[in-house]
Design goal:
The protein has about 375 residues and is mainly α. The chain is about 45% helix and about 10% strand. The strands form 3 sheets. Strands 2-1-5 form a 3-stranded antiparallel sheet, with no helix packed on it. It has a 3-stranded antiparallel sheet with strand order 4-3-6, with no helix packed on it. A hairpin with a 6-residue loop joins β1 and β2. α3 (about 125-135) packs antiparallel against α4. The radius of gyration is 30 Å and the shape is elongated. The N and C termini lie far apart (about 90 Å).
Length: about 375
């Protein structure tokens, strides 16, 4: 049974008749099931969910990519034009026999298992290979390589439980990837299929959509604000440069680790694309926590006594000014992360944003006061005449 809330009328209704049911990841053609939705009044209290039957030769969830219903999200469609005219026999998702021991597990065996898992985890490689073969083979997902890869994928999914790795044979290793997979470090070809066409259409309009720009030397020249210079900031430049170098290195390592492209994405939490080893849903909290930890550490650096200065309290505003200067001044552009393919990061001084805001407010107030004094002198001059 399928019960759904309509997007326009906001009315609940029961879906009846033929429906397509599938779950991601969906690699084998038999993972897409055509089922019959029925009306069961006893289940009306359940909305926007699928209720599968308990009876039958095989559980329907198991037919859908071997699902075990543990947090799985299903795709359900009742559009007649999208219902396949024929069904493919679902794949057998019986897991490989587990490796059993005749004794209690030792710490050394746990360590060996962990290393073995890290070395043999091939889930992403198999999924990418399946996408590439499905694009290039005339039979698409029905092709022999894709069917073989679907079976290997099932073994790889169960690998953490069974300890049996999925071994990818040489003939299933991808030599060229379609352009829409965006693998600049690998040989690629122009995909002539629908996904390839859509990909290039999007790429054509992408530069004009106001997307994130890198901080270039020219942008640095235009952005630098002389108002942020405070008397004595030169005394803190050396320390500021040192801490900025550390900050950029740590931030760059975070970006590389999670496979995130821009500083703006990781700071805002609005990640557009990341490494396939991570997911936005699962890893957004650890990412945000790592960023908060880095900013907190930067503030502890700020509170440390500056080196090479005479005794006495630090000028926190001159120090904040130095942090701003080594970040935004054009002469420091490209001085950090040398030899690494990384952008010039600009978030460093904003770890002490309150000090920067104070500096700007003071300069603006001083300018307004000076302007007011000039206006008074101007009007006094007019009255004298």
């Amino acid at each position: 049974m399928v019960r759904h809330i309509g997007s326009e009328s906001n009315q609940k209704f029961i879906v009846e008749g033929k429906v397509v049911v599938a779950k991601n990841p969906c690699l084998h053609p038999g993972d897409v099931r055509v089922l019959k939705a029925v009306d069961v009044p006893e289940l009306y209290h359940m909305v926007d969910c699928v209720v599968f039957p308990q009876k039958g030769p095989r559980p329907h969830p198991n037919e859908c990519s071997g699902s075990d219903l543990d947090g799985d999200i299903y795709f359900v469609c009742w559009d007649d034009e999208l219902i396949p005219s024929r069904q493919i026999q679902p794949m057998d998702y019986t897991p490989a026999p587990t490796i059993e021991l005749d004794h209690d597990v030792t710490i050394e065996e746990v360590e060996e298992y962990f290393v073995n898992y890290m070395v043999n985890d091939s889930l992403g490689i198999i999924a990418n290979a399946h996408t590439a073969f499905a694009d290039r083979e005339p039979s698409k997902a029905m092709s022999k390589p894709c069917i073989e890869l679907a079976k290997l994928f099932s073994i790889a999914v169960d690998f953490p439980k069974t300890g049996v790795p999925a071994i990818i044979p040489q003939h299933l290793r991808v030599k060229e990837f379609p352009d829409f997979m965006e693998k600049p470090d690998k040989p690629t070809y122009k995909s002539c299929n629908v996904i390839g066409e859509l990909f290039r259409e999007v790429k054509d309009v992408e530069p004009h959509d106001g997307s994130i720009r890198s901080f270039s030397r020219e942008v640095a020249r235009q952005s630098y604000d002389p108002d942020m210079e405070v008397d004595g900031f030169d005394d803190y430049i050396e320390d500021a440069f040192y801490y900025k170098s550390n900050y950029d290195s740590m931030l760059g390592n975070l970006l590389d680790y999670y496979g995130i492209k821009t500083e703006a994405e990781i700071l805002s939490g609005s990640v557009m694309k990341m490494s396939k080893s991570f997911t936005k849903k699962r890893d957004v909290d650890p990412i945000n926590m790592a960023v908060r930890s880095l900013r907190k550490e930067a503030r502890t650096w700020f509170n440390e006594k500056a080196t090479g200065l005479d005794s006495g309290a630090d000028d926190v505003y001159a120090k904040a000014s130095a942090w701003y200067h080594v970040t935004y001044h054009p002469k420091y552009f490209g001085c950090y992360n040398e030899g690494l393919n990384r952008d010039h990061f600009i978030s460093f001084p904003w770890c002490v944003y309150d000090k920067l805001v104070h500096i700007k407010k003071e300069k603006s107030s001083s300018r307004a006061l000076n302007l007011s004094s000039l206006e008074r002198r101007f009007w006094n001059g007019l009255h004298l005449n």
